[in-house]
Amino acid sequence: MSGQDITIASKDGNFSGYLATPAGGRGPGVLVIQEIFGINANIRAIADNLATRGYFALAPDLFWRQEPGIQLTPNTQAAWDKAFELYRNFNVDKGVEDLITSLDHLRALPGSSGKVGCQGYCLGGLLAYLMAARSDVDAAVGYHGVGIDSKLSEAKHIHCPLMLHIASADAFVDTKAQAAIHAALNTNPYVILHDYAGADHAFTREGGDHYNKKQADLANQRTAEFLAGNLKG
Question: SUPFAM superfamilies this protein is in (predicted)?
Fold first, then answer.
């Protein structure tokens, strides 16, 4: 497995991404969709882990239109303030466009099987949901996605397997929003919803204030099985 920063060409300009390559040089792909902290050490570690499991893993820089190269460590107030500023000014539609460009880039890599999934966190959880509705991604996973309840009108367009991990005590996704997500998606045959009782936002981020190893391990195992079943079969 090896990882490197790469350049991705789009119609609006070039942007960077972190690409981790499987040791065998062949396999399906996974887009790793960032939180509001950019392509930081945590996101790179997730990509590296996916590469050890036989995937090309690409984490594109989705804040490049505001400030390229953001890598924040969420352990200071200044980092949080900067992250929320970037989040407030983020154009979701352009973000999905950049992810679709990144999806095409992954599919075109030498050794790629052509199958590509995505997994995203926080803002990336919302974007994973939107990728299931707006793109031809083969499978999508969202962890504690913020704002999905405001985009439920797009649920009818979901046409690929989608798994969402919902933190029941998420400070950024209240119980009303969670209920709306369930009401809109429970009967969708493409969608699997998992709830994690007592878990708060970012419960899977190692080193974070709300990290819950037991529930994170469960969510990550479910994701591993889901992606393998849909991308490696």
Answer: alpha/beta-Hydrolases
Looking at the predicted structure, is the pLDDT value of residue 185 above 90? yes
Q: Are 34 and 123 in contact (CB under 8 A)?
A: yes
Average pLDDT (156-160) is: 96
Q: What is the structure's pLDDT at 208?
A: 86
What value, to the nearest 5°, has the Cα angle with vertex 43 and ends 42 and 45? 65
Q: Mind giving me the DSSP string for 127-144?
A: HHHHHHHHS--SEEEEES
The residues pairing with 3 across neighbouring beta strands, listed in sequence order, are: 20
- Sequence spans of domains, the chain: 2-231
> Would you give the distance in Å from CA 232 to the centre of its chain?
19
2 pLDDT higher than 80: no
DSSP label of 205: S
Q: What is the pLDDT of residue 1?
A: 62
What is the distance between the alpha carbons of residues 123 and 220, in angstroms, rounded to a whole number? 18
For range 105-130, the mean pLDDT = 98
| 3-state SS, residue 166 | strand
Per-residue pLDDT band for 6 (boundaries 50, 70, 90) equals: very high
Specify the CATH architecture of the domain 2-231: 3-Layer(aba) Sandwich (3.40)
Q: CA-CA distances (angstroms) from residue 118 to 4, 42, 85, 140, 171? A: 19, 16, 25, 5, 24
pLDDT of residue 181: 98
- pTM of the model as a whole: 0.97
| Burial class of residue 192 (count of CB atoms within 10 Å of its CB; 0-12, 13-18, 19+) | middle
